[in-house]
Predict the structure.
Amino acid sequence: MIPVKFDYVAPTSVEEALAALGEHGDDAKIMAGGQSLLPVLRMRLNAPEVVIDLGGIDALRGVRDEGDAIVVGAMTTHHEVRDHPLVREHALLVAKAAADVADAQIRHRGTFGGALAHADPAGDLGAPALALGAQFVIAGTDGTRTVEASDFFVGLFETAIGDDEILTEVRIPKHTGWGAHYEKFVRVAHQWPIVAVAATVRGSIDEARVGLTNMGPTPLRARATEAALAGVSATEDGVRAAADLAAEGTDPPSDLNGAADYRRHLARVLTRRAVLEAAGAQAWS
Amino acid sequence: MTKIHLTVDGAAVSDDVEPRMLLVQYLREKLGKTGTVIGCDTSNCGACTVHLDGTSVKSCNVLAVQADGRSVTTIEGLADTVEGELHPVQEAFRECHGLQCGFCTPGMIMQAVDLLAENPHPTEEEVRLGMEGNLCRCTGYHNIVKSVLHAAEGGARA
Ligand SMILES: Cc1cc2nc3c(=O)[nH]c(=O)nc-3n(C[C@H](O)[C@H](O)[C@H](O)COP(=O)(O)OP(=O)(O)OC[C@H]3O[C@@H](n4cnc5c(N)ncnc54)[C@H](O)[C@@H]3O)c2cc1C
Ligand code: FES
Ligand code: FES
């Protein structure tokens, strides 16, 4: 229940946070909302000597319009992401997935950047970020670099963020007017998905993007499904054949919640549902 | 030790705390506010729910140092906001038998108040979804949902 003792640093700028990270190296851990980190510390699965809290860095919070993309600050909470007019207008898929993360209390604290940096294979925000071709802005002492979503997720709980770096913001190319739906399959309320599908479509259906959650160590794009959806009609029969390709090239885990072949079955069924829902859902409701 | 200054249930407090001290521990062990309870080890049950700057959080999953400079409202400070009477949501839980053993109740009420502040006229489904982070071993949830809907009918707000 109680974490091992640690020192606490509360920087007010990214530069200060990077300096603290540089000073303490491997002994330090970044804290965003703490909603995944604190459970880990309380179970004593990790025991950093220093915790660097990003909570006081106002520059990391909020969403802004940058022409062909919206930019979401790493410390923007799930609650803020869900409700933000720019996110709802230009990246509806992200707003819908954020609404489905955990429960209200955790959405008030947990952050967009924290969830993506944590890279839990069952996390709800990776698949939408991947499907929309998000770009991750990562700051280090030598400056910032931008990493494509396809290179950001490296493995189980592993991303392209280096030990001495901080994720500062995520650029999401605008998908204005695209219908979107996040279909999450859970065993009990407010929990991690066994499998989930993030679908967004232009027209009905001209173009589609489909991301898969928990179908492997990282979020995945269902590329075969995306290709097969272009030009089909948004009906049960029109979508079925494309959705049946959703599990191609995936490597889902087998665990207490379901065997790998059961997850493949879920991916196909949930993809069909998500795409059909998305085709009829161009706005927040 | 880190020095923190915050407002708890309307009163200014300041203390030296270990950074690892959880907000729920601070409330219970330092301030004696045992109305906020601990029901699990995994941040699943919601029994420890309080408001931090007006929105609900699980106080077992927040460090006391993260509340520095902020305002916390616990179940013990809720009624004070309406002149010494029970808060309308507390009243609704009493009226509708929204509890049995009562262990989950402080968290249920704090989350219900948050829910009604955001959505004053929820449907039954919206209540069930909005309360998904709060677990109850006794009631089967039926009367809890009824209590929240009853409070909404009476126009209860934060
Ligand atoms: C009961 C419960 C249920 C949950 N259910 C779900 C769910 O259904 N779906 C879901 O997606 N999530 C779920 N979560 C997790 C939640 O979404 C967290 O908010 C999220 O995973 C982590 O966000 P955070 O801001 O709290 O990050 P933290 O916990 O503070 O950090 C997580 C990790 O990321 C690192 N990190 C954080 N920010 C940065 C940054 N800017 N740069 C570099 N590294 C960084 C930290 O060092 C740490 O290792 C649940 C959590 C709980 C406790
Ligand atoms: S004690 Fe905080 S969620 Fe259970
Ligand atoms: S009334 Fe007993 S846990 Fe809810």
Q: What stands out?
A: Chain A has a mean pLDDT of 96. The radius of gyration of chain A is 19 Å. Residues A 29-37, 39, 54, 74, 101-102, 106, 110-111, 113-115, 117-118, 123-125, 161, 166-167, 191-192; B 43-44 surround flavin-adenine dinucleotide (ligand 1) (CB under 6 Å). The interface with chain B takes residues 1-8, 10, 34-35, 38-39, 41-43, 51, 53, 55, 79, 102-106, 108-109, 189-190 of chain A (CB under 8 Å).
